[in-house]
Automatic annotation (TrEMBL):
Taxonomic placement: Eukaryota, Fungi, Dikarya, Ascomycota, Pezizomycotina
Lineage top rank: taxon: Eukaryota
Domain Expansin-like CBD: start-end pairs: 295-387
InterPro entries: Expansin/allergen_DPBB_dom, Expansin_CBD, Expansin_CBD_sf, Expansin_CellWall, RlpA-like_sf
Protein name: Expansin-like EG45 domain-containing protein
Keywords: Signal
């Protein structure tokens, strides 16, 4: 499949060629808060000889009986994104609205203050947007909030040679695509674009990855080009099989409705998409789960700008001089890495965690942000939504 080039030339569906599009489509803040930007630091990235010998072990215990249920090694590590990334032809389905996505983002990503026809996000989202307005605010000239997506599972969980293994010798990937952003637009069946004055036109939307579409659970759409089923998309020029290098994106109902000019009608649509920098308003937040304390923590970072994904989550308890690297949850079924939960937790034999707690986050660019006293209590304030306490890091990654 050739990359789609800009500038855009819009046309009616007269051929099977397509083209891209680049235009529009109570929290706490604790001091001190600092930012550091050491790129590809030794604490996070491998270099030289280490990276050349750092290869993933094959998956040998797959329960799903299909190699596509395993590793994401077919996708290269990406440490920079700009507005000129290549476009890809694809198709999208939708899967409803849920705060239970695999990334462990909770209400974040699901909620928006915008009114989308026929979709009720409920009282928790209304309260979330009142308490955290930045995390419900769209960037200028685009829609983002409420537009979440789940890629096929071998994209959701990947192996990057430049990152340390989650566990030495284990059959595990070491990178999750949680937080990455994509621009998506609906096309005609042949892949060409609607003109702005045509019936059915909808401006491009920005998506954020918050979930996985694992091959085992959804073999119809999410096992990749080699295992595609075509019954519902045989009229799509690029719908089945997926073009090489393309992924399937399963959308929230909000995103699917917006991609169809505001009303959810079709269950599967032809699309073009490309990776874009994440245009996030406000700061990074951390979602601290209830029950956290000196011996157990489950936590997620959300609303990261730039590349969007987090590759390192470290804490420094009061009285400790060194940063302690958290590990990603590993409680997925044996041989099903695509079902990994995106939260971070304490490693084995972690020390007693005293408060206040500092947090250092590393993005996929290698940039780090730090707040030395971000968590000062294990108890959520009375104003917090039950089960959804998000704490302001007081800082943000660089907007790319």
């Amino acid at each position: 499949m050739p990359d789609l080039e800009e500038p855009l030339i819009l046309s009616k569906p007269t051929s099977s060629t397509g083209s891209g599009v680049s235009t529009g489509p109570s929290s706490t803040s604790n001091s001190p808060s600092t930012r550091t930007t050491p790129y590809r630091t030794s604490t996070t990235f491998l270099t030289g000889k280490a990276i050349s010998t750092h290869t993933q072990l094959p998956y040998t215990t797959l329960e799903c009986g299909n190699a596509d249920c395993g590793s994401g090694t077919i996708f290269p590590d990406i440490t920079t994104v700009n507005s000129s990334m290549p476009w890809h032809y694809s198709r999208s389905t939708h899967f409803g609205e849920t705060p239970a996505g695999a990334c462990g983002f909770g209400l974040y990503g699901m909620c928006t203050t915008a009114n989308v026809s026929g979709i009720d996000l409920g009282a928790d989202c209304a309260l979330f947007c009142t308490m955290y307005p930045d995390m419900c605010a769209d960037p200028a000239n685009a829609t983002l909030r409420g537009n979440f997506a789940a890629p096929n599972g071998d994209y959701y969980t990947q192996f990057w040679p430049m990152l340390p293994s989650l566990s030495v010798g284990e059959e595990q990937d070491n990178y999750l695509s949680c937080g990455e952003c994509f621009e998506l637009v609906r096309t005609y069946d042949n892949g060409s674009l609607y003109a702005p004055n045509e019936a059915g036109y909808a401006p491009p939307i920005i998506l954020e990855i918050v979930d996985s579409c694992p091959c085992e659970a959804n073999p119809k759409w999410c096992c990749g080009p080699s295992v595609d089923q075509c019954q519902e998309v045989d009229a799509f020029t690029y719908g089945c099989p997926l073009p090489s290098g393309s992924i399937h994106l399963d959308l929230s109902d909000v995103a699917m409705a917006r991609a169809q000019a505001g009303v959810l009608v079709e269950g599967v649509i032809p699309t073009q998409y490309k990776r874009v920098p994440c245009p996030k308003a406000g700061n990074v937040y951390v979602w601290l789960r209830g029950g956290a304390g000196p011996y157990w923590i489950q936590i997620t970072a959300v609303n990261a700008a730039g590349l969007g994904s987090i590759v390192g989550f470290e804490i420094r308890p009061d009285g400790q001089s060194e940063w302690l690297a958290l590990i990603q949850e590993d409680d997925y079924p044996a041989g099903h890495p695509q079902e990994r939960y995106g939260a971070w937790t304490l490693p084995p034999n972690a020390p007693y965690i005293n408060l206040p707690l500092g947090i250092r986050l590393t993005s996929a660019t290698g940039e780090q942000i730090v707040n030395e006293r971000v968590i000062t209590s294990w108890t959520a304030p009375a104003s917090a939504i039950q089960g959804y306490w998000y704490i302001d890091m007081g800082t943000q990654f660089t907007l790319l």
